[in-house]
UniProtKB/TrEMBL annotation:
Domain DUF305 intervals: 25-103
Name by which UniProt lists this protein: DUF305 domain-containing protein
Region of interest (Disordered), ranges: 25-52
Record Pfam families: DUF305
UniProt signal peptide: 1-21
Native source species: Sphingobium cloacae
Keyword Signal included in the entry's annotation: yes
Key words, A-Z: Plasmid, Signal
Record-linked InterPro entries: DUF305_CopM-like, Ferritin-like
Amino acid sequence: MRKRVIFVCLPALFLIGCSQAKDNRREASAAAADMSQHQPMPVHPSSGDADTDFLQAMIPHHQGAIDMARDEIAKGSDPKVLALAQKVIQDQQAEITQMEKWLADRRSQRQETK
C-alpha cells in the first residue's frame, strides 16, 4: 500500500514542482524586463585626474537614480516612497547640474593653462 501511495504521489509532486519552476521563471523574466531600462553605468577611461574621473562617474550614477525615481512615481502607490522618489529627482538633478558645472570649469582651467 505504501509503495502505491508513493507511486501515485511522486508524479503529482513532480508536476507541482515543474509548475512552480515555470512561475518562478516567469516572475524572474518579468522582473528582468522591468529592470532592462536600468543599464550598467558607462565606464569612462581614466583622465589621469581623480576629481574629473569621479565627477564623470557620478553623473550617470545620479541619472540612474533619477530614472529609477521616475519609474517609482509612474508605478508606485505608497505616499512616503513617492515623496522620497520626488526628493531624489530634485536632489540628484541639482547635483548633476553642479557636477557638470565643475567639469566645465575644470575644462576651462585646463585650456587656460595650455
